[in-house]
Amino acid sequence: FSDEFNNIMLLAILVPFLPAASYLIVRKYGQQESLFSFLIYGKILMILFSSILAFYFYKPMPLNDLFINLAAGIFRGIAIIFVINSARHLPSSIFASAQYIQIIAGGIIGYIVFKDIPSLNVYFGSFLIIGAGLDASTQKLLNRGAKLTELLKQKQYSPMTVAEQVISVFC
Question: Does the pLDDT at position 135 exceed 70?
Fold first, then answer.
């Protein structure tokens, strides 16, 4: 927090909103659109924003870095297919956990590949993001448990049959 606030820092703060917005769009329109339309729209927007940034910050890339970026792009494309499919079909409480694993995996891979040790601010921010999400999913799970407990309460000496319990839970 000691550096002077500039446009790059503002961009770093605003960038996480773009994937969040894309996941919300996938959740809303995921059943109506095909998987390939999401990939094409996403790549078109990525090319558009990348070209705007490249206009200001372009530097020629060595050939071995180009191959590394090509391989990373292929892996990312495959991963995005899986992420979009999971966003379309999984419940939010399960899908959110995968997003938190990405935060942790990013730090681990950054350390293994680049020997980059994240700063204390990165650890603190990751902890806040994961903690806030886990709090929401835990609260949802606790509310569901309380509802099921109330639903399955039985009178003394007159228990419900298993079939009645199953019907009451799933209806």
Answer: no
